[in-house]
Amino acid sequence: SNNSVARAQAATTTPGAVLRQPITRTSTVAADPQWQWPVRGRILQPFQSGPGFNKGVDIQASIGEPVRAAAGGEVVYAGSGIQGSGNLVIIRHGERYLSAYAHNQRIHVSQGETSRAGDQIGEVGTNEQEQTALHFEIRRDGKPVDPLTYLPR
Predict the structure, then answer these.
(1) Beta-strand runs (E) in the chain
(2) Angle, CA of 50, 79 and 130, to the nearest 5°
(3) Is 135:127 a contact under the CB 8 Å cutoff?
(4) Cα dihedral 71→59→137→116 (10° resolution)
């Protein structure tokens, strides 16, 4: 509650010094994202926990259908360099959450961009089984969680 030291240090700005500012409770606590469906469709493969199981859900959709950001955040990966994911987009939502969108036919965002919930980030493509589907994951604190417990019904 006493930020006098931080304020005093912030008042002296010498070249190369670290600028210190008081930390308020509201600036360090972020609300959980308000999730929405990245694409509408039937669940082909549900989430299954454990090593080697499905770490997200596979959602059937039409080829080329828009894939939308499930919540606002920063694009931390957009590319095809991760084997088995096709064209992949990963978005960071604050300190605790990531969402991943795999098997896109096309990607509409670049790494470092900010996206809002509902922004088009890609287009539905095909998975390894040649199904037109989006593989969608949510990770909380680095661990996969069942997206269906976060998405609206």
Answers:
(1) 43-45, 57-60, 66-68, 73-79, 87-93, 97-107, 114-115, 120-126, 132-140, 143-145
(2) 65
(3) yes
(4) -10
Instruction: Select from 71, 69, 72 the least CA-distant residue to 89.
Output: 69
95 closest CA partner among 35, 149, 142: 142
CA dist., res. 45 & res. 59, Å (int): 7
Q: What tens digit of pLDDT does each residue of 7-34 get?
A: 344 444 444 444 444 444 333 345 789 9
User: pLDDT confidence of 6, banded at 50, 70, 90?
Assistant: very low
- Tokens 């088009």 correspond to what residue? 120
Over residues 42-63, the mean pLDDT reads 92
Asked whether the beta carbons of 69 and 115 are under 8 A apart, the reply is yes
Tokens of 72: 């606002």
DSSP class of 137? E
CA atoms within 13 A on the CB side of 65: 14
Which residues face 32 on adjacent strands?
none
